[in-house]
Amino acid sequence: MLAQDVGTQGATYSLQMADVDGERARTLHRSTAPILSASWSPDGERVAYVSFETGRPSIIVQDVNGPKRERLTNFRGINGSPVFSPDGKQLAMVLSRSGDPEVFVMNLENRKLRRITRHPAIDTEPSWSPDGKYLIFTSDRGGKPQIYQLELATNFLERSPLLVITTREPAVAGRQTLGLRASAQRRVSYCLARFIGRPTIGIDRIGTG
Fold first, then answer.
1. pLDDT tens across 78-126, in order?
2. Fewest 10 Å CB contacts: which of 39, 69, 95, 134?
3. Interior/surface letters 172-207, b for 16+ CB within 10 angstroms, e for the rest
4. Burial of 22 (C-beta count, 10 Å sphere; 0-12/13-18/19+)
């Protein structure tokens, strides 16, 4: 899945689906507004992404093989980082409608929103554990970006206890933690990126189990 800018003057943005080698590409949606953060549903039948076609970011879910396309959110501020739950019934996202960027989960059957985090820090980049019981996200609530996990049934939150973030370079202002993905072995991949410089990619275990 690729969202790209196919022009500079009068830019047109397109959401495309292709094989892993880039072959058999086809366009799912085309817009004059940016398209970001495309994310597959587990069954591969839908894709969630962020569109700016209303003048501000909104989260869209679109069928891959049909015309159905639905705007799920269009709140003031951030509407971003959509990611499907493992069973495809929920969508985690980041909204700042309450002021600060917070993680929310939407029930896709009834469109009800559940607020997951409540903190004045920046909480972002949610990702699901393979069993759907945990959300993993980044937050700077401890003074710098770190990876946290939250058990949805109990709201128990902890910073990844075994995570040690290291790079080959000394600490640099502006570094951010981005791009979380959790695997079936309860390991999380992350990327430490600077505004200037090459990103550092690492893998670490989440939780103590």
1. 999 999 999 999 999 999 998 999 999 999 999 999 999 999 999 999 9
2. 69
3. eeebbbeebebeeebebebebbeeeeeebeeeeebb
4. exposed
The answer to whether the CB of 127 falls within 8 A of the CB of 188 is: yes
Tokens 């946290």 belong to residue: 148
To which residue do tokens 């943005």 refer? Answer: 13
Q: Side chain identity at 120, as an amino acid letter?
A: P
